[in-house]
Design brief:
mainly beta; four-stranded antiparallel sheet
């Protein structure tokens, strides 16, 4: 069976100057930044906080930030790369470099103690660009925050295509995938606290 790593073409997709829909309103100027991290593409067959990864691998360039009153998540090139599907079969050529026709994505902040907050969905362009800037009720306390990005159905995240840092066990040898994004995430954030509140 083919391995998934190192099968990615480095040809950059033309993201272009695309407008993206904005959900909610921008947080207050004096809002406190609680957490910030880059985004990482998914790994099929990996479940994070009860949400299964999409059946295809995804890559992304982007970041997430949680403030005291908002969840701000944006990215480009959220697309399917070459690699293997969840069933081990190769990603069909017709899907490579596309968003598989997914029209919208949302972000979900999940906390280790079981708390979660879901944003409204926003447009995902055909080039994989999106921007979520949603005023939400951020939990007063959150242990080990993880932000997931993916499509929603019936008020819940259907699958995750990208996420912020998470601990990965039993996945040795996964290498960086495309445009600086990595497949597996990591165990440390980008300089921010991994927990807030009491």
């Amino acid at each position: 069976m083919r391995t998934w790593r190192a099968r990615l073409s480095l040809a950059i997709l033309a993201a272009g100057a695309v407008g993206v829909a904005v959900a909610g309103s921008v947080g207050a100027a004096n809002a406190k930044v609680l957490y910030t991290s880059r985004l990482y593409g998914n790994i099929p067959n990996v479940t994070v906080r009860g949400v299964k990864a999409g059946a295809a691998p995804w890559i992304v360039q982007g970041s997430a930030q949680v403030t005291s009153d908002a969840l701000i998540v944006q990215g480009t090139d959220l697309v399917v790369p070459p690699g293997d599907m969840a069933d081990g079969k190769p990603v069909p050529k017709a899907l490579v470099g596309t968003t598989v026709g997914i029209p919208k994505v949302a972000a979900e902040l999940t906390c280790g103690q079981g708390t979660s907050v879901l944003t409204p969905a926003v447009t995902l362009t055909k080039q994989g660009a999106f921007k979520i800037d949603a005023q939400v009720k951020v939990p007063a306390a959150c242990t080990d925050p993880i932000v997931l990005v993916g499509p929603v159905a019936n008020g819940a995240m259907k699958a995750w295509f990208a996420s912020t840092n998470f601990l990965v066990y039993g996945l040795p040898g996964r290498s960086a995938l495309g445009w600086g994004g990595t497949a597996a995430g990591s165990s440390s954030g980008s300089g921010s606290k991994s927990t807030w509140g009491g």
